[in-house]
Amino acid sequence: MTKHEFEVAMTCEGCSGAVTRVLNKLGDVKFEIDLPKKLVWIESDKDVDLLMETLKKCGKEVKYNGTK
Q1: Which CATH number fits domain 2-67: 3.30.70.100, 3.30.420.40, 3.50.50.60, 3.20.20.80?
Q2: H or E segment to which residue 34 belongs
Q3: Considering the entire predicted model, what is its pTM?
Q4: Which residues form the HMA domain (predicted)?
Q5: Counting beta carbons within 10 angstroms of the beta carbon of residue 49, is it exposed (0 to 12), middle (13 to 18) or buried (19 or more)?
Q6: What is the pLDDT of residues 15-56, one digit of tens each?
Q7: In whole angstroms, how far apart are CA 36 and each of 24, 53, 68?
Q8: Among 56, 55, 34, 35, residue whose Cα is nearest residue 44
């Protein structure tokens, strides 16, 4: 599986909770959230565009930083 890094404009636990909820609904992904650095790492074989659209559902600005 490929590990992707995204920058998500999270400011609180509620924001990271929203990210957790939308990613859990997607299924078949492993992820880590670093709230202080506003980073989300997702391990998945799913398309990057699908991952971006899923993260945007939490209502925050999302930027793709590439694979890690």
Answers
A1: 3.30.70.100
A2: strand 30-34
A3: 0.94
A4: 1-63
A5: exposed
A6: 999 999 999 999 999 999 999 999 999 999 999 999 999 999
A7: 21, 22, 19
A8: 55
